Amino acid sequence: MTTYQGYLLEHTQAHAQAAYWFTRLNSGEATAAELREFEDWRRDNPENERSYRYICYFCDASLDAPEHEIRRLLASSADKIIVLKPYHRVLLSALLLLALVLTVFFSWPERVLRQAHLVSGEQALEQRADGLVLLLGPDSALELREYEDRLNVQLLRGQLTLQLADQAQKSVTVFTSFAQARSNQAQFSAWLDNNQMKFTVMAGSIEVSSGTWWRRQTRVLIPGQHVFVDRWSGMKRVQPAPIALNKAD
Known about the structure:
The structure is a single chain. The chain is of the alpha+beta class and 249 residues long. The protein contains 5 helices and 14 strands. Strands 1, 2, 3, 4, 5, 6, 7, 8, 9, 10, 11, 12, 13 and 14 form a 14-stranded mixed sheet that branches. The longest helix is centred in the first third of the chain and has 22 residues, at 4-25. It is globular, with a radius of gyration of 21 Å.
C-alpha cells in the first residue's frame, strides 16, 4: 500500500522531471533519442503525464494577460531593478519561487467529478444526460475527466466524434499532448494517428491550439473546415473539408 509520504515523494519527483523535460524539449536542442526517452517516461506513469500537462497549462496561463500590460510591468520592473540592492534581489527571487511552488502544490490537482476510460473494438456510443454525444471509432481509446465547469477528453488513439447540446453547461476540450480543440457548442471530430492529429468541424465552431506558450498557434474552425496538427512541425493551414463524390455521377 502506498503511504502518503511515498505519494508525496512520487508527486514531487514527477514535477521535477516534468520541468526538466519541458525545458529540454523547448530548447530546440533535444535529440531523437531524447524524444523517444521522453515518450517512454510520459507513458510510464500517469503522474508523469499529469505533471507535464500541468506545467504546459501553467505556462499557457500567461497568455491571459494583455500584451500591453505585460510590457508595462516589464518596463517598470526594469527601472526598479537598477536601484535594488543584491540582497533585495535574492529576497525577491525567493518570494517568486515560493509563490510558484505554492501555486503548484495547493491549486493542483483539481477535484474530478467523474473519470472514465473508454476503449472500443468496433464502435462505442455514449449519450450523456446533458445532451453530449460521444461516438468512439473502431480501435480507439480515450480518457474522460469531468470538472465543475468543463469536460476534458484525452484521445489516446483512433477517432472521436462529438455532438454538443445546444445549451451546453460546460465547455468540452479534446486534446493530446501536442494539440487541443475546445468548444461550447459544436459537432466535430478528432482523429489521432501517432504524431499527427486532425480536427474536422461539421456544425458550430471550435478553437484549435498547439505549440508552447511563447509560440502558441490558435485557429478557429467553422463548418466544412479541417486542420492537421503535427507533433513536431506544428499546425498546418486550415483547409476546407473534402467534398463527398456524388454516387450518381
